[in-house]
């Protein structure tokens, strides 16, 4: 669907990629083959959000011919970054068809994606964590639980990213981190590299959007950040079932 193909590209870098292809027969894969015919299949992984009418018809067709349908990546699962645009919007796939599960992330972390593929190959259930990023964050010892520090930035400046791998929790440094509301499962890769969590794995509870509202109301946010709607729309555009 509408995507940057980043999620599907991740597939090729997975350790289990050769094994996965050995054990599956690809029915339809427009990213690598020109084959246009959709065939009955066991599993469909759909990447990208819905931003055009024709895509609704296509996913409805996929739902009919696939035994299981999964949303691959945060665009497919939550609408994704297209919703930062003032002119365009992207809906999650689940707005239009029933999905059997999501593989979140922008793109999905390789360990999570790999474990998911192993589970479907072995016909096992795959469960996402119900804990948040802070639970496994290496910076959690220094979290400012009273949220007194003024939050003035969405990201640290370049000098801070390169230095000392941010020894303190981002919230204690005045940088917005959505880790308290975001599902863990990426091994804190952004945080370890010096960037705060933006929420791409979604919420362990039902709605990331309402959790963000509650969370932001507790923070001491700068006026500039108070009016930045992108915090809400990156991975949590409110959705309505049609
Ligand atoms: S979730 Fe991220 S990586 Fe995947 S298609 Fe959307 S923007 Fe690209
Ligand atoms: S708020 Fe962010 S940096 Fe702080 S402990 Fe949680 S995930 Fe780590």
Instruction: Indicate the overall shape.
Output: globular
What bound compounds does this protein have? iron/sulfur cluster
What is the CATH class of the largest domain? Alpha Beta
Compute the gyration radius: what is it?
A: 19 Å
CATH-defined architecture of the largest domain:
3-Layer(aba) Sandwich
Strand content: 5-15%
CATH homologous group name of the largest domain:
NADH:ubiquinone oxidoreductase-like, 20kDa subunit
CATH topology of the largest domain: Rossmann fold
Distance between the termini: 18 Å
When the domains are counted, the total is 2
Helix count, DSSP H or I runs of 4 or more residues: 11
Mean pLDDT: 89
> What share of residues is helical?
25-40%
Order of helices and strands: HHEHEHEHHEHHHEHH
Topology, number of strands: 5
Largest sheet: 3 strands, parallel
Sequence stretches where pLDDT stays below 50 over 5 or more residues: none
Secondary-structure-derived class: alpha/beta
Task: Report strand order across the widest sheet.
Answer: 1-2-3
Write out key terms for the chains shown.
2 domains, binds iron/sulfur cluster, two-stranded parallel ribbon, three-stranded parallel β-sheet, 242 residues, alpha/beta, Rossmann fold, 32% helix, 5 strands
Topology summary:
Layout (H helix, E strand, L loop, with lengths): L5 H8 L3 H7 L17 E7 L5 H13 E7 L1 H5 L22 E3 L6 H12 L11 H4 L13 E2 L6 H5 L26 H4 L15 H11 L1 E2 L1 H4 L3 H4 L9
Parallel strand pairs: 1-2, 2-3, 4-5
The protein binds iron/sulfur cluster (2 copies).
């Amino acid at each position: 669907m509408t995507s940057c193909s980043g999620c599907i590209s991740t597939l090729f870098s997975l350790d289990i990629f050769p094994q996965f292809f050995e054990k599956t027969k690809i029915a339809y894969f427009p990213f690598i083959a020109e084959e246009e015919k959709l065939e009955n299949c066991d599993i469909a992984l759909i990447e990208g959000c819905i931003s055009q009418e024709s895509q609704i018809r296509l996913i409805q067709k996929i739902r009919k011919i696939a035994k299981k349908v999964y949303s691959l990546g945060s665009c497919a699962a939550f609408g994704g970054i297209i919703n930062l645009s003032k002119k365009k919007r992207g809906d999650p796939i689940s707005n239009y068809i029933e999905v059997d599960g999501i593989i979140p992330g922008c793109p999905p972390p390789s360990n999570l994606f790999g474990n998911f593929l192993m589970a479907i190959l072995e016909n096992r259930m795959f469960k996402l964590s119900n804990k948040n990023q802070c639970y496994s964050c290496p910076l959690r010892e220094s979290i400012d639980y009273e949220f007194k520090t003024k939050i003035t930035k969405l990201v640290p400046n370049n000098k801070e990213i390169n230095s000392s791998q941010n020894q303190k929790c981002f919230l204690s440094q005045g940088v917005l981190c959505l880790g308290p509301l975001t599902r863990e499962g990426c091994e804190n890769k952004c945080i370890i590299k010096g960037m705060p969590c933006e929420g791409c794995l979604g919420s362990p509870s039902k709605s990331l959007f309402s959790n963000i509202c509650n969370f932001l109301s507790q923070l001491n946010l700068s006026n500039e950040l108070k009016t930045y709607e992108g915090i809400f729309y990156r991975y949590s555009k409110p959705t309505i079932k049609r």
